[in-house]
Amino acid sequence: MAEDVDELHAIDRVTESLYASVCFEKGGVPDLEQLRRLFIPEGILINNSDDSPAIMSVDQFIEAIHLQISNGSLEALQEAEIAGKTEIFSRIAHRLSSYEATIGPDPSHILARGVNSIQFIKASGVWRITALVWNDETDLQRIPKRHL
Q1: CB-count burial class (<10 Å; 0-12, 13-18, 19+) for 117
Q2: pTM of this prediction?
Q3: How would you classify residue 15: left for phi > 0, otherwise alpha for psi between -120 and 50, otherwise beta?
Q4: 71 confidence band (pLDDT: 50, 70, 90)
Q5: Which is nearest to 111 in space by CA: 141, 68, 76, 83?
Q6: Which of residues 99 and 109 earns the better pLDDT score?
Q7: What angle do CA 91, 97, 103 make, to 5 degrees?
Q8: For 116-135, what is each residue's pLDDT tens digit?
Q9: Is the N or C terminus of the chain more exposed, i.e. has fewer CB atoms within 10 Å?
Q10: d(CA 84, CA 61)
Q11: Per-residue 3-state assignment (H helix, E strand, C coil) for the chain
Q12: Are 148 and 130 in contact, with CB atoms under 8 Å apart?
């Protein structure tokens, strides 16, 4: 039982690091190399918020963030988990993670809320992310209370 708690805490730390890796203040940059280290080399990120999913490798995602910062469309970002539930079996795990993202220093300026589906594997004693799929909340599709 203690081993399960240890594994859950390890996945919690990876999830916290994932969110922290994309956060940055105005004039700064996110730690996207940390993001890269959290994923397996073949990892993917999928934005499923629109009718056509946007599927990216980790490198493509990092390039997209760098482009948004360089063209001024993204000046600051704070993203955090507001609720999460993890299921573990042996060396695989899944976390349903509700999030809230804000831009700028005003935490009341919510950019997006939604749900991440994060897949993990444990290899060589380390939990790493294989896939991250997200869907932003909309006026027509609210995050259910069970995910908050």
Answers
A1: middle
A2: 0.92
A3: alpha
A4: very high
A5: 76
A6: 99
A7: 135
A8: 999 999 999 999 999 999 99
A9: N
A10: 23
A11: CHHHHHHHHHHHHHHHHHHHHHCECCCCCCCHHHHHHHEEEEEEEEECCCCCCEEEEHHHHHHHHHHHHHCCCCCCEEEEEEEEEEEEECCEEEEEEEEEEECCCCCCCEEEEEEEEEEEEEECCEEEEEEEEEEECCCCCCCCHHHC
A12: no
| Closest to 135 in 3D by CA, of 57, 45, 22, 47 | 47
Q: Are strands 126-136 and 39-47 parallel, antiparallel or unpaired?
A: parallel
Owner of token pair 């209370």 = 145
Short-list 81, 143, 77, CA closest to 118: 81
Cβ–Cβ under 8 Å, residues 40 and 128: yes
